[in-house]
Design the sequence.
């Protein structure tokens, strides 16, 4: 329901968005989001069934380019900002399972 | 060298081409001003003095050899730190990218380099362009050059303050819901949000992709036209880039004739949230236009009353998706959790906890909610329908008038920390600027005068999509009428940084 997001909901959303947060932050977010949603939920007043949605202000369709190779970043450039790299690849922490 | 920084970009360009001033002298004068003004305004996150001087030397040499140069070659520019610059760190105002040095240039950066404009540095901004005050930066606040106890607006507050404080004659900003026009209004400068898709977004760190647009920030309408011309044009690297050729804007900006121009005034301009000082200045500018032969009509665009609400659902939804790329794996910050297993997922969550500021987190979570199953239709779906209704209202209005007018922001510059209690307080600043982003329309803000509190007031013009030229012909004419009445350029009234602060109170927003 509009205007109310519980801290449990916020905790779930934070987990979906991959943002670690403590109890105090979750409580503050729940309060802030409640205020914002309470205000903006009024979009429903005029968004009736017969109105189509607009996702893009000036829509383009079928944007193609010639299928020809163009210069790209070198491997070194692509890895230049990586927190960690090894053997010309991004090095990441353990991704499967937790032991 | 003080005098060089007081020139408009057009004046400086003509002194450069006549050989009266060299580009090295021009850049050095602005670097000197940056050194003087930065302790007061903090417009820049990074100053690139050596690079700017090197570019200036190259341009001076090429000019000496008699090479054909771009009209703005050698005129220095400041670039918002949301726009990537190869070899110069680009932070987006965030701890997440504090040390990130991009391996490529944005298309607009490449255009600026190609034309030979020395880049003075990267300007401060609300983190990832989220905010209307430039308080939400990991690199400290920017202060309004007119009154250092007030915000400069945002999110392009650094670019606006740099131009107002004579640190740069030209700056580049980005506008998602008013982030060029609102800081221009609060700092007494000129800012233009071009038609959506008419300036490439390639290499501009995305906030809300269906709303973001890059544009010029300057002290005069003619300078905005010249910089806009340089930035605009189709770019195959951006799949939302419009294929249409962009016309020249400098000729339009030289227009002085408003006879028969039909100006529609948004009825919301007379709403309760608009301060008396803003209303007075706005009305006086409309009266000038009417005396010069423009036809002024008030128009009701009722769907615009819902634009702010739709924006605060659509924008966070796009933010939650766009900012998912900051995961601590490929570039930017990586932070490990203090205890427990160091898995990729837990590293992402800790990286995003440490790397994002509060406003960014709030918008990501809000967007995640608005897009979640069960709420999607009620929130994001409804907001997209409002977007259709806003577009329809504008289309109807532009059947009757050539341009639309309103104040750019409901108040003059206000004090710091005013959104602490209720986030909606800050969001309301963008009530006049947001509709243009939802509909993709071009908009311009120029200073109409000074309110009773000694601070600048912004006047906004809107035009139909792809009719950016009208902003310059109407804006150029209005600027000239205002200058005639005033007896000089608006920006010249700021003789000393923070000067208005001594005359005005410190609570803000009259």
Sequence:
């Amino acid at each position: 329901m509009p205007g109310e997001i519980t801290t449990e909901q916020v905790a779930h959303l934070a987990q979906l968005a991959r943002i670690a947060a403590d109890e105090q932050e979750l409580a503050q977010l729940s309060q802030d989001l409640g205020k914002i949603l309470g205000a903006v939920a009024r979009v429903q007043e005029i968004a009736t069934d017969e109105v189509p949605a607009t996702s893009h202000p000036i829509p383009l369709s079928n944007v193609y380019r010639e299928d020809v190779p163009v210069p790209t970043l070198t491997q070194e450039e692509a890895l230049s900002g990586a927190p960690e790299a090894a053997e010309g690849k991004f090095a990441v922490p353990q991704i499967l399972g937790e032991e | 060298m003080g005098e060089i920084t007081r020139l408009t970009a057009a004046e400086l360009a003509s002194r450069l081409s006549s050989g009266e001033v060299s580009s090295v002298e021009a850049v050095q004068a602005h670097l000197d001003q940056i050194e003087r003004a930065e302790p007061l305004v903090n417009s820049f996150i990074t100053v690139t003095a050596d690079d700017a001087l090197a570019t200036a030397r190259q341009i001076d040499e090429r000019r000496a050899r008699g090479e054909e140069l771009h009209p703005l070659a050698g005129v220095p520019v400041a670039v918002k730190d949301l726009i990537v610059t190869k070899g110069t760190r680009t932070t987006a105002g965030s701890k997440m990218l504090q040390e990130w040095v991009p391996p490529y240039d944005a298309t607009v950066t490449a255009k600026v380099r190609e034309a030979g404009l020395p880049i003075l540095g990267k300007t401060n901004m609300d983190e990832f362009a989220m905010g209307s005050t430039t308080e939400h930066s990991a690199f400290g606040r920017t202060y309004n050059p007119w009154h250092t106890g007030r915000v400069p607006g945002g999110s392009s507050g650094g670019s606006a303050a740099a131009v107002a404080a004579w640190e740069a004659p030209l700056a580049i900003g980005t506008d998602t819901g008013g982030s060029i026009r609102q800081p221009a209004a609060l700092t007494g400068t000129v800012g233009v949000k071009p038609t959506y898709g008419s300036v490439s977004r390639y290499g501009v760190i995305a906030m809300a992709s269906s709303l973001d647009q890059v544009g010029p920030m300057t002290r005069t309408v003619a300078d905005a036209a010249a910089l806009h011309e340089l930035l605009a044009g189709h770019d195959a690297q951006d799949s939302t880039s419009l294929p249409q050729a962009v016309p020249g804007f400098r000729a339009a900006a030289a227009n002085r004739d408003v006879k028969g121009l039909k100006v529609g005034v948004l009825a919301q301009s007379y709403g309760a949230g608009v301060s008396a000082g803003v209303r007075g200045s706005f009305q006086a500018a409309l009266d000038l236009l009417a005396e010069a032969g423009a036809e002024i009509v008030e128009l009701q665009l009722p769907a615009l009353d819902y634009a702010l609400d739709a924006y605060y659902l659509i924008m966070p939804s796009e933010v939650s998706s766009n900012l998912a790329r900051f995961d601590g794996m490929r570039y930017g910050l990586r932070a490990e959790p203090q205890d427990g297993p160091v898995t990729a997922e837990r590293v992402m969550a800790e990286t995003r906890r440490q790397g994002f500021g509060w406003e960014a987190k709030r918008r990501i979570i809000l967007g995640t909610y608005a897009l979640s199953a069960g709420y999607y239709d009620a929130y994001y779906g409804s907001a997209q329908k409002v977007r259709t209704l806003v577009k329809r209202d504008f289309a109807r209005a532009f059947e009757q008038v050539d341009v639309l007018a309103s104040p750019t922001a409901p108040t003059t510059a206000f004090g710091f920390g005013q959104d602490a209690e209720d986030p909606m307080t800050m969001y309301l600043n963008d009530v006049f600027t947001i509709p243009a982003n939802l509909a993709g329309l071009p908009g311009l803000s120029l200073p109409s005068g000074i309110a009773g509190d000694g601070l600048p007031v912004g006047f906004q013009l809107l035009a139909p999509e792809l009719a950016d030229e009208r902003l310059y012909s109407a804006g150029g004419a209005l600027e000239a009428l205002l200058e005639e009445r005033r007896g000089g350029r608006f920006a010249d009234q700021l003789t000393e940084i923070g000067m208005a602060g001594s005359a005005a109170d410190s609570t803000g927003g009259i």
